[in-house]
Structures are given as C-alpha cells and as structure tokens.
Amino acid sequence: MRPELLKATLKAIYNSNKRSVIIEGAPGGGKTSLVRETAADIAGTSEHHYVGSCQVFGDNLFGYVEKHMPTMVVEDFGIPDMLNTESNTFGYKVPDWFPAEYRDDLPERGFICFDDRNQCGAELQKVLANVQQARNLHGVRMKEGWMVVSTGNRQKDRAGANKVLSHLSDRETTYEYETHLDDWTKWAIDHNVQPELISFIRFKPAMLHDFDPQRDKNPTPRSWVEGVGAMVGNVPPEAEYETFSGAVGEGPAAEFTGFLRIWRKLPNPDAILLNPTGSEVPTEPSTLYALSGALASKATIGNFDRVCTYVERMPPEFSVLSISLATRRDPALASSAAFAKWAVAHQDVLF
What is the CATH number of domain 3-176? Predict the structure, then answer.
C-alpha cells in the first residue's frame, strides 16, 4: 500500500476500533517515520515536547511512544514489585513508557509503535500479543485512546526478521508498505530534501527503492536522503562518488554523480527567468529533468509568471513536472493568475 493511502487507513482504523496493525516492507522505506507523521497529522500539529520517552504533539493532544524491539528484553515490559514488605502478595511495576489508564501526565490518545518488531524473539512476541489483544500489561489497563502499530522487515529481506508467532499475527492486520514515487516526492519537498536529488529520482524512479538482500548496499529512500542528499555540498567534490557509493552502491552513485555534473552546468535559473522567452531550452532528457527541478526550487509568487512562460517552451511532460514540483513546494503558487493560465493550457493532463 502506498504511503499516503496507508496514512489515511491508519487514521480510519484509529477512529474506529483501534485494531493493532503491522506495517511490513523492505528496509529503508520510511515505515516508522510514516507512523510518527500520522500521529502528528491526527494531532493537527508537528509541534511537540517530551514526557519521559513519550513524544507529545500539541498541548497534550496526541502521544507517540516508539520502542525498538530488537534491543528490548522481557523485563522492559515490567518487573515484580516486591518492595512492599507489609503485604504477602506482590504486583508488577510497568515501564514509564506504557500509557496506563491511571496516568494523567500522558495524553488520552496516542500510538505505541513497536519498531522492527519482526526482529524480536518469541518471548517478547508473547508479551506483545497480550498488549494487543487484552490491552493491558500485567493487569494494568492501557488508555482507551491508544493504539498499537508495529513496523518490521520481511524474512525474505534477510534483515534479521524472525518467524512471527501465529497467535500474534492473528491479532493484527498486516499491511505491505509500497514505496511510491509521487508520495516520496511530496514528502521530500515537505522535508526540504535537496532539489537535485528530487529531480534525479524523478529521472530515475526505479532507483528510489531497489532493495536486494544479496547486495551490500542498496538505494532506499533512507539511504538516498541521509547518505546522499545530505552530503551534497558538504563533502569535497572529489569525495562525492565514494561517499554516495558507500550509501547506495556503486551503480546508483555513478548515475547520480553524472547527474550532478549536468545539474552544475545548467544555465543559471535566475538568468533564464530574466529572459524566459529568449533563453535556450535544452533537448536532452537528463538536462530537462535537472532544469525542471532547478526552476521549481526557484519559483516564487513574484516570478511564477516568468517560470510558467519558460516551461511552456519545454516539452509538455517537463512543463507539467516543473509546475507540479513548484506547487507542491509552495501551494500558494496554485492560487496565482499565472498558474490558472498555465492550467487551462494543460487541462488535458491535469483533469
């Protein structure tokens, strides 16, 4: 399931019966980030603070707890409380991250995200099964407004995933996470990913998430953004290829390094916008992809009419690409007169 639809589905399940969910997919796709961002969407704000290990969005609007299952032990879910020497019985102390119903320092609504759930062993899976079904931990009830969402890799990914116990699997709904180019583009623009990387991925969409467990390095959304995009301009030019190769592998690194050379030789977008009717329009697809992204990153309300004038001279698919990237980055551009005029001319591909 593509990310935007998966977000909408998580919200729908949360608003209905809060059935536990597991999101599975190849490493590096952004599964856990999606759960965290869905929590922020439900709260209606990304502003947050922390109460212990609980991320609280807004003014106590929605909580998010993330636990990394491979590094946990059974005792992390509670230990016997034997300090009361006046009693002949003992109960359990539950961990500070658990949203127990009696806690007034945590929001009434939230997600518990068990990250890399499939990498934990059978003993932890047994504990988790009871949290999901009975919604309690050692007899302590979980707040009614909280929902359990887990993420994990598949066994075929060879990322340390174990077989999931059948009774745990029966207590949750499994969704297959599908990396989607348009959804990633929207996310990348919203998170200020380098425009040259966005343009390259639009040019070579098959490289966005090409995971093969037989390879040492793979291009994934995570490795592109963190290992490549964040390094552009921050490492010496002569070290770029080796830096990129160490993140996404030799083939993708070579392709992106070549694309960067094209990007850096592009006509100055500012010069193009000074003369949108007379500036030369390239013909090579790789150069057109690069220029589409460069112009989109420069678009403002003040110059958008000139952007539209120039891209009208490009092949239609690149005109659409440039305007789409620009309006995703700044939605206010879609309310301009220049966009309205451009949209009428391209209504056959927009509507």
Answer: 3.40.50.300
